[in-house]
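Escalation from tier 1.

The customer reports that the assembly of two entities below gives different structure tokens on two consecutive runs. Tier 1 could not reproduce it. I'm attaching the input and our single run for tier 2 to review.
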Amino acid sequence: MLDEEARKETDLMLSTENVGKEFNGVWVLKDIHFQLKKGEIHALVGENGAGKSTFIKILSGVYKPSAGSVFLEGEPVDFHSVTDSEALGIRTVHQEVNLVPYFKVYENIFIGAERKKRIGGMSIVDTKRMKKEATKVIKDLGIDFNVSSPTLLLNASMKRIVEISKVLVHNPRIVIFDEPTTSLGEEERKNLLQIIKGLKDRGLTIMYISHNLEEVMEIADRITVFRDGNQVGTMEKSEATTGKIISMMIGHDNYKHYCRTDKYYCEDVYLSIKNLTTEKLKAVNLNICKGEMVGIAGVVGAGKTEIAKAVFGLDKIESGSIEVMGKPYIPSPENAIRHKIALVPEERQAEGLVPNYCVSKNISLTYLDKYANRAGLINRILEIETAQAYIDKMGIKCTGPLQTIKFLSGGNQQKAILSRWLNGDFDIGIFDEPTKGIDVKAKEDIYGFLEELAQQGKAVVVLSSYLPELMSLCDRIIVVRDGRVIGEYSPQQPNAEEKIMHAMLGGGA
Amino acid sequence: MEKSTLANKNLRIEFMRKYGTVLGAMLIFTIFAVVSENFFTLNNQLMLLRQMSMLTIIALGFTFVMGAGGFDMSIGNTAGLINIVFAMVLIGTKNFWLALGASIACGALVGLVNGTIVAYIGLPDFIATFAIGSIVYGLKMLITRGNPIFFPADIPKIASFIGQGYVGKIPFPVILMIFFVVLVIFVLTKTTLGRRIYAIGGNPVASLYAGINVKRYRLITFVISGVSVAIAAVILTSRLGSAQPLAGEEFLLDAIAVCFLSTTMFGDGEPTGSGTFVGAFIISMLNNGLTMLNVPYYFQYITKGVVVIFAVVISVVLAKKLKLKL
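Tier 1 run:
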């Protein structure tokens, strides 16, 4: 640990000591000693759930750390909000583009920070000054562009530039880029990397978060790897190789706690996806058989969830088809249930729970007709008894079937949502990030249930960006990237993890 | 010790959140009973119940819409249109049941249009139902030029009985009201329809993922709202003995007030059948009691507004307090 003097004397722009964050008793980030040198591009890599976003949110003032301190140029800082961190010159370029489409470019750049002038007693927007400043900021990026054009007409790459300009007009000292090349083409990616390098040459300090190791290797001066909320290491670019980073990201001792024992051979295809194309997916082909556990691996935004949504009829299908047991199937939630397809969605809060309903009402929701007579009268006693049976079976910690579900922990909520589907009699279950944000014990339990389902002869499809769980659970792993199926792997094949990780990240090794 | 006092405090807050509005209503009731000598008499109480019956029935329909997270701005104008439809069919055919059927069909149709535009086309409910309300207003004015339609002497007896009749001492609309209150409480709490409607109100996306046909159920809530308006309008027309194109417009604001009051009672922030009944009683009691006290009508509006805001704010504040404690 550095004492105060040392901290001030070094060339550190920002550092953290012992920073950690816990949510509901789960530490998602532990003991982070991160050091950001003045004028460097420092890449932060790690799998999903490794703690990158949480860390960024601490640095930008969204979260307060549960432990440890953050120092800016040696001075301890205590951010209460994003405004605090922005006032000290820390700005983030977010992964998502957040522009008002019908604003002009300069209006978007100055959104919330409009330049003003006084005329008489009134303060009015200074359009001329904003245009001038916006033009300069964009020109400094090496781009010649009319800032009065409507944002609506910009392509993805230009929108990204506008997002960056939005940050630069505030003259930040530290810019955090969160996956800035998402949804950009190859050429546009290269240009953007050049622009970021240019910012470094102007003396800005940059943090760069990316899944794409190729980019990281090209742009970063130093690389820090997070895994499971821990800082695994920081290295100079010269010491780093893609292989080394990947093995640091994967780790080798932390995930063997669950391992599927049964071998499985596919006999009859249950669900068949043919050349499926939606807004996000490009000609996806998939066959899922009864009794197998299939992993679909991919980084966030790779198209995993979109496959599930297409099967459930929640995304529009542009072309291609889906068949269930060789017969054409028209996707819709109701039809999916009729065809015995279950979907446990990724966003438990937004897509899973009815928060004000008690545990029993949440469990019975999908197959409610099972509890009702023809007139639709619900047999509440049967409903509560069934819920109690699931509470016992799944080990859901709650005061009983009548407890409101929003007061349960994430893992217990997830178990209740799983019960909702177990309650019916599905043949194929699609589980989208089933262990996202839940504690270790609940994860183990859920792996157990998934395995049990496969043993009962159901097809279990696990969508995950967390490779270790797929490695230990699945019979085969299908990798998707940018809406395409990249390949299929067996977890048993030699160096499977490295190969799959390469396929997921798309970096040349 | 520490823990049990906290638990006790939570119970008290929970009690106040769920029953505070009822207690407040009882307080207002007592004040009226003490201050006005005509308020707490059997005749006036029966009159109050008869006055509130139409509002209650409309608000019960609105409860379905709001329970599913929606809003229906068209109810006031629709009531006026159905007044006319009922009277015209009744006068034309001299058949009460035909007139009732036509009224219900008309209410259901308006609900169907509302529901289709909101649930299937995807317009915001506030705007869509407001616009439909405007169209309905125009239609009824087009039909009547704003003039009332009076019943001739030879209409079937039952047509006046609906709104004016008594069973023993009890006005018939009150019996209808009690029937619908019980029916709605039953449907909303005991059946799959009610369960799914509240699920949609609680989390529409999760409901979709759980396989509920969210669009269809939202459409159904608007149809129920339209039908309940039709029933209330038939009672109203029967009571007045004439179809007034503008009668029933005040139902919109009152029903909204009732349903917001309803959200403050018994449940977790969703309107309930029983809450709506009590809410309708509160609003009607204010109307009645203030009239008894010769308070000018404009003060009645002010009072109603204040009461609704007060109840909703208190309930929200208490809910927040409870959340912090848990």
